[in-house]
């Protein structure tokens, strides 16, 4: 009976056993031994059970379940990053029972095999009852394989979605680069337009300067006309004085006849002397005022020199600000070049990441190929050359990833250094611009104070001129009164005879004429000084206006430079932010690739360990099967059962016409004892293999 069961197991087709999640291995000996145990558990009747007694076969069922649990290895651990791994599901082949006709046509390797007529009907019935039980177990494996195929398809869909997302991200990056180029072109056009506007403003400012010059020229003409009017008035006064002198000469002839009014004449002479002293005091005061005006003119000249120095300083500061602006523009150009170089390096790193991803996918696909090759190996040996090649590829990938990480670190450090330099230069430029603004405001305040002082001085000079004019009018009235008195005296002298004091009066009159001439000369000097002061004031006003115009220009240029610097800074910051984001994304991708490589390496190590374990198990099962076959052959009176086959899918077993020697004497106790001992030995060997 046992020999017949073993013959049925060996004559069946090779089973495909699922071992783990990643690959399939077909081992004929292991499956045949398992089939032997299953057949023993199913074909042995319950009423003749020697181990359990009547009513059950629990020990045999437990043994079969234990063997099945050992054969079904645990599923491989899935990586944290869900690395997609290919599975090669194999379609299970149903076990087909050989009919008597096919057995008769086939050639049996055993010459002592019996015909199917010698078999008992019980064995055929038990064989037919075994086939539906085995066929019930196979759909469950098929469903498991289908679920695994569905998972693999989902993983493939996820990978395709990730590839599509990466391609869309690349397209977006290209579009953003094109947008940045367009923005740069627009900014350059705006910069050219601003330069043209500055040129137009400079031309308009030149026109304004010419208009101001015309206005100043008109004012000078007005001042000259006023001075000519004053000169005409002085000429009229001189003519009046000449007429007065003629009248005095007439009086000289008439004074010879003055005798009676000596007391009145003496009093009049004393009053005239007092008036002359007052005029002398006024002359001294006017001279002091002229000296004060001279000192003020010197002060104004010094202030002008200081203003010119301030203007030169502001011009120097403007030149420095322009130089800083040029430096900032050059730094912006350098930053743009650095950004371009960084973008090129990022593109190169992306191009390097693509082959790395392809290698990762190859590595993920290689484990299935390795498993397939191990399945096709009948001895269970693993090819060492392919493992060494894969190890070398993994080492190369690790080296490439380390280089990429190092390059990303260098790029980040370069970006940080450029950001710090740009911030320092921006701070320096802002400080310089602020200092220039402060100096311009100071110069404005100083010029305002000086203008106020000059206006006050001009008002004082005008007041002094008005006072002098009033004094001249008073003196003219006094002269008219004196002339009238002289006329009255002349009439009296005509009436009276000349006296002895005519000579004294003539001397006093000469003194008065001399004093009047001195007063006229002093007045002319004062008028000349006033003209010079007015001219100097006009020049000062012109210089002040020019300084204000230059300051306004400087302010406008500084504001324009500050705006351009701010715009360039904003653009550079935006570009730096974009580059930092791209660098972070590339570093993240590199990290993902490294994680995928590590996961693939871990999966490779696990698969290698499983392959080794399966190899050891296959060796143990082979030894156990050989021992069982030897024992069965010795127990069957030296009959030897041999089975040859291959692991190919087109394998056709050679059915033997082996008949069961125990079909006639099923109730014999000696073969049952031998088979029980044989099963015990198989269990011991199996436990040793597990250890």
UniProtKB/TrEMBL annotation:
<keyword id="KW-0175">Coiled coil</keyword>
<feature type="region of interest" description="Disordered">
    <location>
        <begin position="157"/>
        <end position="180"/>
    </location>
</feature>
<protein>
    <submittedName>
        <fullName>Myosin heavy chain-related family protein</fullName>
    </submittedName>
</protein>
<feature type="coiled-coil region">
    <location>
        <begin position="451"/>
        <end position="536"/>
    </location>
</feature>
<dbReference type="InterPro" id="IPR029688">
    <property type="entry name" value="ICR"/>
</dbReference>
<feature type="coiled-coil region">
    <location>
        <begin position="583"/>
        <end position="624"/>
    </location>
</feature>
<feature type="compositionally biased region" description="Basic and acidic residues">
    <location>
        <begin position="168"/>
        <end position="180"/>
    </location>
</feature>
<feature type="region of interest" description="Disordered">
    <location>
        <begin position="641"/>
        <end position="691"/>
    </location>
</feature>
<feature type="region of interest" description="Disordered">
    <location>
        <begin position="75"/>
        <end position="142"/>
    </location>
</feature>
<feature type="compositionally biased region" description="Basic and acidic residues">
    <location>
        <begin position="115"/>
        <end position="142"/>
    </location>
</feature>
<feature type="coiled-coil region">
    <location>
        <begin position="304"/>
        <end position="366"/>
    </location>
</feature>
<feature type="compositionally biased region" description="Polar residues">
    <location>
        <begin position="91"/>
        <end position="113"/>
    </location>
</feature>
<comment type="similarity">
    <text>Belongs to the ICR family.</text>
</comment>
């Amino acid at each position: 009976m046992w020999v017949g069961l073993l013959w049925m197991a060996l004559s069946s087709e090779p089973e495909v056993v699922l071992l783990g999640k990643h690959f399939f291995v077909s081992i004929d000996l292991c499956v045949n031994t398992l089939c032997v145990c299953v057949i023993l558990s199913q074909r042995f009747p319950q009423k003749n059970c020697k181990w359990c007694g009547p009513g059950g076969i629990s020990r045999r069922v437990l043994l079969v379940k234990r063997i099945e649990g050992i054969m079904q290895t645990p599923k491989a651990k899935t990586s944290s990053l869900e690395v997609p791994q290919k599975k090669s599901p194999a379609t299970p082949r149903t076990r087909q029972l050989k009919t008597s006709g096919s057995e008769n046509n086939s050639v049996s390797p055993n010459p002592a095999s019996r015909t199917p007529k010698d078999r008992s009907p019980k064995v055929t019935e038990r064989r037919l009852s075994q086939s539906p039980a085995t066929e019930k177990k196979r759909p469950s494996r098929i469903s498991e394989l289908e679920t695994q195929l569905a998972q693999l398809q989902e993983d493939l869909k996820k990978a395709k979605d990730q590839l599509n997302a990466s391609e869309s991200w690349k397209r977006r990056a290209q579009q953003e680069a094109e947008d940045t180029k367009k923005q740069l072109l627009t900014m350059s056009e705006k910069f050219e337009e601003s330069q043209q506007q500055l040129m137009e403003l400079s031309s308009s400012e030149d026109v304004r300067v010419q208009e101001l010059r015309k206005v100043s020229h008109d004012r000078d003409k007005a001042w000259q006309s006023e001075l000519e009017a004053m000169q005409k008035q002085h000429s009229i006064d001189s003519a009046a004085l000449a007429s007065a002198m003629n009248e005095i000469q007439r009086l000289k002839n008439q004074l010879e006849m003055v005798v009676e009014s000596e007391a009145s004449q003496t009093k009049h002479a004393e009053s005239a002397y007092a008036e002359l002293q007052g005029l002398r005091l006024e002359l001294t005061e006017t001279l002091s005022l002229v000296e004060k005006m001279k000192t003020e003119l010197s002060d104004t000249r010094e202030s002008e020199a200081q203003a010119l120095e301030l203007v030169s300083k502001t011009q120097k500061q403007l030149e420095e600000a322009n130089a800083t602006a040029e430096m900032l523009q050059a730094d912006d150009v350098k930053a743009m070049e650095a950004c371009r170089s960084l973008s090129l390096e990022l593109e190169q790193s992306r191009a390097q990441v693509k082959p790395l991803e392809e290698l990762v996918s190859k590595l993920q696909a290689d484990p299935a190929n390795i498993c397939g090759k191990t399945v096709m190996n009948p001895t269970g040996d693993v090819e060492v050359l392919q493992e060494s090649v894969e190890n070398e590829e993994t080492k190369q990938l690790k080296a490439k990833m380390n280089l990429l990480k190092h390059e990303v670190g260098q790029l980040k450090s370069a970006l940080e250094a450029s950001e710090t330099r740009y911030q320092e230069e921006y701070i320096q430029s802002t400080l310089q611009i602020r200092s220039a603004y402060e100096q311009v405001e100071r110069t404005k305040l100083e010029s305002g104070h000086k203008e106020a002082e000059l206006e006050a001085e001009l008002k004082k000079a005008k007041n002094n001129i008005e006072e002098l004019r009033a004094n001249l009018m008073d003196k003219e009235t006094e002269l008219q009164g004196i002339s009238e008195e002289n006329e009255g005296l002349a009439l009296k002298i005509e009436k009276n005879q000349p006296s002895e004091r005519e000579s004294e009066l003539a001397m006093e009159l000469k003194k008065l004429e001399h004093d009047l001439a001195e007063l006229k000369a002093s007045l002319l000097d004062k008028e000349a000084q006033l003209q010079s002061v007015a001219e100097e004031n006009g020049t000062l006003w012109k210089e002040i206006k020019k300084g204000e115009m230059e300051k306004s220009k400087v302010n406008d240029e500084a504001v324009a430079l500050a705006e351009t610097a701010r715009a360039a800074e904003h653009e550079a910051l935006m570009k730096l932010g974009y580059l930092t984001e791209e660098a972070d994304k590339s570093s993240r991708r590199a990290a993902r690739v490294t994680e995928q490589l590590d996961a693939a390496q871990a999966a490779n190590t696990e698969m290698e360990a499983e392959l080794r374990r399966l190899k050891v198990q296959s060796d143990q099962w082979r030894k156990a099967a050989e021992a069982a076959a030897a024992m069965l052959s010795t127990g069957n009176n030296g009959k030897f059962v041999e089975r040859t086959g291959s692991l190919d899918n087109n394998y056709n077993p050679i059915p033997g016409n082996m008949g069961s020697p125990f079909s006639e004497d099923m109730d014999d106790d000696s073969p049952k004892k031998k088979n029980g001992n044989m099963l015990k030995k198989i269990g011991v060997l199996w436990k040793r293999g597990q250890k």
